[in-house]
Amino acid sequence: MATKKPRLGVWKFASCDGCQLSLLDCEDELLAVAGAVDIAYFPEATRSTVSGRYDLSLVEGSIATPHDAARIHEVRRRSRTLVTIGACATAGGIQALRNFADVREYAAIVYARPDYIATLATSTAIAEHVRVDFELRGCPISKHQLVEVISAFLAGRRPVTPPHSTCVECKLKGNVCVMVAHGTPCLGPATHAGCGALCPSYNRGCYGCYGPMESPNTPALTKQLEALGVDQSTLRRVWRSFNANAPAFRRESERHGP
Ligand code: SF4
Ligand code: SF4
Question: Cα(246) to centroid of ligand 2, in Å?
Fold first, then answer.
């Protein structure tokens, strides 16, 4: 008798779709994934949808509207395991810059009729609203890590996504440190590994796309950045980008201005 395959759902909230595209970008691995699971809901990839419950839900995007805030509870109810993918879903994303300002002012600048816009004052991570079984970081996420998460789910084990800093990946690649050698500001020492130290491998500093590593010493890194001549307003912006609302980065940015 054929065994029933686990049902996969891929859900979108406030996001740019880049993390869902990482799944489509898996190419060879995608065929294996498609063979191992029943893709029951994934509007980015297929029009067909199957209602009911899901064994694994991958959730992209943040909670930014009243509709999102209600819908995520429905997704949680229908999901056995819920994994959030990307900086939007794990930290509120770039749209969480509104959390430091008045969202009505932003809406008035962007939209001709802001009165038609139903939005929340903040953009927040999925885990601030419902129980999340695993968070996969990155903007966008790494497709290799995504395949690891799905494989781990199928094998009934915890995914292996090391929580150490980007510096560890950078050193393992044998890169020359851009901060030490060239005085280029780099967020690598405080940033979660996962991208393979992409920017330092091309002689640029890390921008912190993967959010805070497990125990980041952000004040120490700020001291180093100050020594390189980074001023207070730049420091505030450096810590306030894709993962602005991740607590460790938010606290550090707030030390340098409102
Ligand atoms: S985390 Fe980045 S790539 Fe992923 S959906 Fe959000 S903005 Fe797009
Ligand atoms: S270049 Fe950046 S990520 Fe690489 S070792 Fe230096 S500080 Fe760390």
Answer: 21
Separation of CA 193 and ligand 2 centre (Å): 11
What ligand 1 atom has the least distance to the C-alpha of 17? 5
pLDDT tens track for 9-66: 999 999 999 999 888 887 777 777 778 888 888 887 776 666 789 999 999 999 999 9
**3-state DSSP call for residue 147?**
helix
- pLDDT tens, residue by residue, 106-123: 999 999 999 999 999 999
Give the residue numbers spanning the domain of 68.
7-155
How many distinct structural domains can be found in the chain?
Answer: 2
The response to whether residue 221 sits with its C-beta less than 6 Å from ligand 2 reads no
What is each CA distance from 160 to 41, 78, 136, 144, 170, in whole angstroms?
25, 25, 10, 11, 18
What pTM value is reported for the model?
0.93
> Which ligand 2 atom is the nearest neighbour of the CA of 191?
3
